[in-house]
């Protein structure tokens, strides 16, 4: 998986955790031709994914990246090269369009109604149900569609670096 992901330029990325303790249970990574579900409870060494997650040249499209960043830091994993679709939606649509949850953004922007029933399911139970796996995969895959819909923004276009005089 990591060898394949190193060749990608844009990834949809999401995580599932336990509800209250925020234990990382699952990482979902979507690329152009596959969606990977990484069982973080079974994989004891997440270090191989670290260079991909912190590579600024591979765009990670995430909805509400603050949650992913806070979760991954607990596992010594850092994110770089992030496009946060929550930030993009807020900047492009403002406050007058309603909420900016992933469900609302997908409905408004893509005409896609996401079933979020499994969002609060027990992600620590194994095996995961077919419904949980489908939900998790779609949450990562849909981020690639949102990224394209929003014009494929880059991290630099969201947070441009200030230019110093004379540069």
Describe the structure.
By secondary structure, the chain is α/β, with parallel strands linked by helices. The chain has one domain: Ribonuclease H-like superfamily/Ribonuclease H (Nucleotidyltransferase, domain 5, 2-Layer Sandwich), CATH 3.30.420. Helix content is 36%, strand content 17%. It has 7 helices and 5 strands; from the N terminus they run αβββαβαβαααα. Strands 3-2-1-4-5 form a 5-stranded mixed β-sheet. A hairpin with a 6-residue loop joins β1 and β2. α5 crosses α6. The model has no long low-confidence stretch (mean pLDDT 93).
Whole-number average pLDDT?
93
**CATH architectural grouping:** 2-Layer Sandwich
**Element pattern in H and E:** HEEEHEHEHHHH
**Class of secondary structure makeup:** alpha/beta
The general outline is globular
Question: What's the number of extended β-strand segments?
Answer: 5
CATH class: Alpha Beta
Strand numbers in spatial order across the main sheet: 3-2-1-4-5
Helix content, binned percent? 25-40%
Corresponding CATH superfamily: Ribonuclease H-like superfamily/Ribonuclease H
> How much of the sequence is in beta strands?
15-25%
Computed over alpha carbons, the radius of gyration is 16 Å
User: What is the subunit organization of this protein?
Assistant: single chain
- Taking pLDDT < 50 over at least 5 consecutive residues as the criterion, the unreliable ranges are none
Number of domains: 1
Largest beta-sheet details? 5 strands, mixed
Number of helices: 7
């Amino acid at each position: 998986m990591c060898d394949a992901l190193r060749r990608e330029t844009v990834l949809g990325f999401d995580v599932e955790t336990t509800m209250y303790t925020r234990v990382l249970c699952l990482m979902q990574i979507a690329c152009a031709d596959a969606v990977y579900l990484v069982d973080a409870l079974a994989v004891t060494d997440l270090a191989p994914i670290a260079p991909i997650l912190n590579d600024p040249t591979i765009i990670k499209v995430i909805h509400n990246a603050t949650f992913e960043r806070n979760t991954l830091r607990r596992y010594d994993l850092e994110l770089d090269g992030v496009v946060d679709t929550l930030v993009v939606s807020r900047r492009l649509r403002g406050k007058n369009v309603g909420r900016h949850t992933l469900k609302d953004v997908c409905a408004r922007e893509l005409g896609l109604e996401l079933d979020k029933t499994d969002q609060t399911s027990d992600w620590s139970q194994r095996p995961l149900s077919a419904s949980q796996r489908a939900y998790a995969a779609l949450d990562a895959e849909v981020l690639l569609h949102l990224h394209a819909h929003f014009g494929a923004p880059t991290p630099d276009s969201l947070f441009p670096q200030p230019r110093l005089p004379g540069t």
